[in-house]
Specification:
The complex is a heterodimer of chains A (279) and B (491). Chain A contains 9 helices and 17 strands. Chain A is of the alpha/beta class. Chain A has 2 domains: 88 residues, Translation factors (Elongation Factor Tu (Ef-tu), domain 3, Beta Barrel), CATH 2.40.30.10; 158 residues, Nucleotide-binding domain of ferredoxin-NADP reductase (FNR) module (Rossmann fold, 3-Layer(aba) Sandwich), CATH 3.40.50.80. A 7-stranded mixed sheet of chain A has the order 12-11-10-9-13-14-17, with helices on both faces. In chain A, strand 13, helix 6 and strand 14 form a beta-alpha-beta unit. In chain A, helix 5 packs parallel to helix 6 and helix 6 packs antiparallel against helix 8. Chain A is globular and about 50 Å long. Chain B has 491 residues and is of the alpha/beta class. Chain B folds into 3 domains: 155 residues, Alpha-helical ferredoxin (Fumarate Reductase Iron-sulfur Protein, Chain B, domain 2); 162 residues, FAD/NAD(P)-binding domain, CATH 3.50.50; 151 residues, FAD/NAD(P)-binding domain, CATH 3.50.50.60. Chain B contains 21 helices and 15 strands. In chain B, the strands form 4 sheets. In chain B, strands 3-2-1-4-15 form a 5-stranded parallel sheet. In chain B, helix 5 crosses helix 7, helix 7 packs across helix 11 and helix 12 packs parallel to helix 21. Classes of the chains: A alpha/beta (279), B alpha/beta (491). Chains A and B meet through helix 1, helix 2, strand 8, strand 15 and helix 8 of A and strand 5 and helix 16 of B. The structure holds flavin-adenine dinucleotide (FAD) (2 copies), iron/sulfur cluster (2 copies) and FE2/S2 (inorganic) cluster. One iron/sulfur cluster binds next to helix 6, helix 7 and helix 10 of chain B. Chain B: It is an enzyme of class 1 (oxidoreductase). Chain B: Its EC number is 1.4.1.13. Chain B: This is NADPH-dependent glutamate synthase.
């Protein structure tokens, strides 16, 4: 059991949680994730470790409510417990001083981007960050990201905040202005697909952090598999970061929908039952 | 071996055994038919996860036990990897001393209720029974009897708690809670060590929990064993991946003096054929984990599972059989085994194959999938199957399947389960660069001691053998405990 010690809503659907997990706080590095399970009957699902405090023995998770499990997690209060939490999982980001980094986060992808931006900055890179969302209220972690970025470009689809346009337009703007040595993209699969196409045009080496469906997170089931450069890879152990220009995003988009109908139904059932309970 | 032989002889010479032998002549014994295991009706059982074999009644067990002629040279024992004193426990059953029979089992096996259910008896003890070897008759039902005695003990509530030596305060760690780890933990606890078992998943039991379905091995049986270990003082830490959650170095600093890696062969293999990543194609690990570990078939759990109407399972081992029978239970109209060799070569337990047939599973042998097709949503809808024939024997001694030129078939599917084998779990070796591994990725150990290239690290079960069996994993756990004890005492 893992105790929640702090909680803050960034928006109606995005919440930050600090959780007591001293071993993970000590062992984790930027890019790692955990698998969480809530309650006896809960499912196992992955979340990036957005930050950690070794002294306090806590880790931070930033969760966007999209379905049953993320809603259950977001509904937990300070003092309550997460039933199961395991990690740190995956390969840590390979951080070194590469020069200028273009870091791009879409939607809740900004959460996992934060520790990476921080690590790049601390390694001496110049960091230009583009964060994007559909509208103003979906922009998260702006201040925290800004703290570790030499420059921050905010984009919204509807122009309600920052500049109007897609993440790729913000990227083009930065690329036109200066030489980028490496790009890092995290966000919804569609966003990553187009962001990868953008950097490919300019031959900028690019990493994407993939958010496939997972079960165990330790290489045991193959639910997370995708094709990279024509070869099957397991995102949980080989990734989650891969050369974005080699990833078959179209396949990944299809695979993400593998359980969509079942999940949608479970979600509407859950919402109905929690309304009945008055939560 | 000398010792063992004289022990067996002196046991056999005991008065009660002599008396029992004389109570019936051998002719009478051997003329009896082998007992039939009572089973749940195939049509009913595929609608639930009820255990297929219901177990022998006391009367049936005693009658079957009377078939055993208590051989002077009990060849059956040579077939058992942990050398259970088979005639002794069987004769205890014949006598009606069921709790005594269970004690005999526990002399060498820590999970008899499990082994009685899942051992490939027809290749081990029963293959070496006098009946099979000399009389060319059906062997004594050693597995059924083993299960009977173990179940009797559990259900009687009179489980004998093993004697525990005085606590010595030495901390040892066990990595993984499958049969290898559980056995190791039990043996070390008996020797007085302070044992902690670290398990990566949220449940204890390894393949016994996440792999083998409840209709073959109810979880409750494994849980009783785990409770027993807890009573003996064994500590369990779930959600703890040794090498990730904490490196071995940290555990050493925390006082652990030696380690046993029983981390299993949990990584699925795929065939790397076109279309294999389409939706609806899963590894047997994913399929069985969703059902057995996450209980996805229960509507009240959050984990979803696909339940197709036309299910193809690729492979011929126990894992394939468990998957295909699970598919039937999830409501498949057609559940088909696609296996590249013939029925004879199929590695699954014979009983499972028989049960699968009773449940309406179809078998396409000498067949191998070579390509998958999907609809516009990426959902698999067809598989192309290559017909095979058997050629020359390969390195394993089995005849190699070779494609029959031009003989292909396309069948409709909506779910495909790939059960073509597993690879060793790389997490422990990856976290210890100085640990020697084979080219297969299994941990290298000394054969007699199971000590690895790191002196304080022992290993056994599937992480050393590749995919093997429950009983071999248990045998390793036991052996490693014995040699680790010697190592720690001489240190
Ligand atoms: C390595 C990794 C790191 C992740 N880190 C974070 C994180 O830090 N914060 C966070 O909020 N989420 C993160 N995710 C995504 C998170 O795991 C999913 O949002 C979560 O599993 C959804 O579960 P659910 O039951 O709430 O929704 P479900 O009922 O499973 O899904 C509801 C809907 O959400 C969408 N969805 C489902 N899974 C994903 C996914 N993986 N990515 C995008 N959309 C999805 C689908 O369209 C689906 O229909 C990460 C995923 C991976 C693989
Ligand atoms: C579906 C299926 C059916 C089978 N049927 C039979 C049968 O009928 N009869 C038979 O004899 N055999 C059968 N087998 C094979 C048998 O189950 C295995 O040989 C046996 O379980 C191996 O035991 P083990 O203890 O070595 O490993 P496992 O049972 O695999 O247990 C290993 C455990 O270690 C954990 N682990 C791994 N790495 C770490 C780490 N770094 N830190 C912490 N924990 C870790 C894993 O999560 C797992 O729980 C079957 C296997 C499967 C998959
Ligand atoms: S443990 Fe297995 S091989 Fe040994 S006697 Fe029992 S069933 Fe036979
Ligand atoms: S070989 Fe068969 S008949 Fe002989 S002791 Fe063993 S089980 Fe009994
Ligand atoms: S999540 Fe199971 S193998 Fe990656």
């Amino acid at each position: 059991m893992f105790k929640i010690v702090d909680k803050e809503f960034f928006s109606e659907n995005v919440v930050r949680l600090s959780i007591e997990a001293p071993r993970i706080a000590k062992a984790r590095r930027a890019g790692h994730f955990v698998i969480v399970k809530i309650g006896e009957k809960g499912e196992r699902f992955p979340l990036t470790i957005a930050g950690a405090d070794r002294e306090k023995g806590t880790i931070t998770l930033v969760v966007q409510k999209v379905g049953v499990s993320s809603r259950k997690l977001a509904a937990l209060e300070v003092g309550e417990y997460i039933t199961d939490l395991v990690g740190p999982l995956g390969q840590a980001t390979h951080i070194e001083n590469k020069g200028t980094i273009l870091a791009c986060g879409g939607g809740v992808g900004v959460a996992p981007l934060l520790p990476i931006v921080e690590a790049y900055k601390k390694a001496g890179n110049r960091v230009i960050t583009v964060i994007a969302a559909r509208s103003k209220d979906l922009i998260i972690l702006e201040d925290q990201i800004k703290q570790f970025s030499d420059e921050l470009i905010v984009m919204t689809d509807d122009g309600s905040y920052g500049k109007k346009g897609l993440v790729t337009e913000g990227m083009e703007e930065a690329i036109a202005r200066e030489k980028i040595d490496e790009a890092m993209i995290i966000g919804p699969a569609v966003m990553m697909k187009f962001a990868a196409l953008t950097t490919k045009k300019y031959n900028i080496p690019t990493l994407a952090s993939l958010n496939t469906i997972m079960v165990d997170g330790t290489g045991m089931c193959g639910a997370c598999r995708i094709t990279v450069g024509g070869k099957t890879k397991f995102v949980c152990v080989d990734g989650p970061e891969f050369d974005a220009h080699q990833v078959d995003f179209d396949e990944m988009l299809l695979r993400l929908n593998g359980y969509k109908d079942l999940e949608k139904k479970a979600d509407s059932d859950y919402l109905k039952s929690s309304e009945e309970k008055g939560r | 071996m000398e010792n063992r032989d004289s022990y067996l002889k002196s046991e056999r010479a005991q008065e009660w055994r002599e008396k029992l032998r004389k109570s019936k002549n051998n002719k009478e014994r051997t003329l009896q038919e082998r007992v039939k295991m009572p089973e749940a009706d195939p049509q009913l059982r595929i609608q639930s996860y009820v255990e297929v074999n219901s177990g022998l009644s006391a009367e049936q067990a005693q009658k079957e036990a009377s078939r055993c002629i208590d051989c002077p040279n009990p060849t059956c024992i040579t077939g058992c990897p942990v050398e259970i004193n088979i005639p002794k426990f069987i004769k205890r059953i014949e006598e009606g001393e069921f709790l005594e029979a269970a004690k005999v089992l526990k002399e060498t096996s820590s999970l008899p209720a499990v082994c009685g259910r899942v051992c490939p008896q027809e290749k081990q003890c029963e293959a070496n029974c006098f009946y099979t070897q000399k009389l060319k008759k059906e062997p004594v039902a050693i597995g059924y009897l083993e299960r009977f005695a173990a179940d009797y003990e559990r259900e009687s509530g009179k489980i004998s708690v093993p004697e525990i030596q005085e606590k010595n305060g030495i901390k040892v760690a066990c990595i993984g809670s499958g049969p290898a780890g559980l056995t190791f933990a039990g043996e070390m606890a008996k020797k007085g060590y302070d044992v902690t078992v670290f398990e990566a998943l949220h449940e204890i039991g390894g393949v016994l929990k996440y792999g083998i379905p409840e209709f073959r091995l109810p979880n409750e049986i494994v849980d009783v064993e785990i409770e027993g270990l807890k009573k003996m003082g064994v500590k369990f830490e779930t959600n703890f991946i040794v090498g990730k959650t904490a490196p071995i170095e940290d555990l050493k600093e925390e006082g652990f003096k030696a380690f046993f890696a029983g981390s299993g062969a949990g990584l699925p293999r795929f065939m790397n054929i076109p279309g294999e990543n389409y939706i609806g194609i899963l590894s047997s690990n994913e399929y069985l984990t969703r059902i057995n570990l996450m209980h996805a078939a229960d509507k009240n759990t959050d984990t979803p599972v696909v339940s197709g109407k036309n299910v193809v399972v690729v492979g011929g081992g126990n894992t394939a059989m468990d998957s295909v029978r699970t598919a039937k239970r999830l409501g498949a109209d057609r559940a088909i085994i696609v296996y590249r060799r013939s029925m004879e070569e199929m590695p699954a337990r014979v009983e499972e194959i028989e049960h699968a047939k009773e449940e309406g599973v179809e078998f396409m042998t000498l067949s191998n999938p070579i390509e998958y097709f999907a609809n516009e949503k990426g959902q698999v809808n067809k598989v192309k199957i290559q017909k095979m024939e058997l050629g020359e024997p390969d390195a394993s001694g089995r005849r190699r399947p070779v494609p029959v030129e031009g003989a292909e078939e396309i069948i409709d599917v909506d779910t495909v389960v790939v059960a073509v084998g597993v690879s060793p779990n790389p997490i422990v070796p990856d976290s210890l660069p100085e640990l020697e591994v084979t080219s297969w990725g299994t941990i290298k150990v000394e054969e007699d001691t199971l000590q690895s290239s790191i002196p304080e690290m022992y290993a056994g079960g599937d992480i050393v053998r590749g995919g093997a069996t429950v009983i071999l994993a248990m045998g390793d756990g036991r052996k490693a405990a014995q040699s680790m004890d010697v190592y720690l005492k001489n240190k």
